[in-house]
Write a structure and sequence with these properties.
Low-confidence stretches: none
Number of helices: 4
Oligomer: single chain
Strand content: 15-25%
Helix content: 25-40%
Structural class: alpha+beta
């Protein structure tokens, strides 16, 4: 692994209404679940200069009313993805010209251990890499 491979920079985040609408619109969108997480993803053509993956992490207010808990869960998911994104990137070669847009969505109303969340993220990334 290169030194910069274990980072999570701003240009890896999925933001902007157009990209988010493109991810959640009807069509060839795929979804996988490993409770308490669900991932929605779509493979598209990459525009020059963009990274091969873009990630959105969402924890709804109906699950946790307090922002402290929502932020904790988002931090746990972000850390698990940052440490294990190589699982997915191995099957998405740089020269292929494709990019994967993905959204991790939280579905439970209780907090989980970081190790448990990391196992679920790894499981989802492995399933996604098999399907791509």
């Amino acid at each position: 692994m290169s030194e910069g491979s274990l980072t999570f920079r701003k240009n890896e985040r999925l933001y902007g209404k157009l990209l988010i609408d493109q991810l959640f619109s009807k069509g060839n969108r795929c979804s996988l679940a490993a409770f308490p997480l669900r991932v929605v993803y779509r493979v598209r053509d990459r525009i020059d200069g963009e990274l091969p993956e873009r990630v959105l992490i969402s924890v709804p207010k109906r699950c946790f009313k307090r922002a402290v808990k929502r932020n904790r869960v988002k931090r746990q998911i972000r850390e698990a993805f940052r440490k294990n994104k190589q699982i997915l990137l191995q099957n998405l070669p740089e020269q292929s010209g494709s990019q994967i847009l993905m959204a991790f969505l939280w579905q439970d109303t209780r907090l989980h251990d970081t190790a448990e969340i990391e196992k679920k993220v790894i499981s989802l990334l492995q399933q996604m890499s098999e399907r791509i």
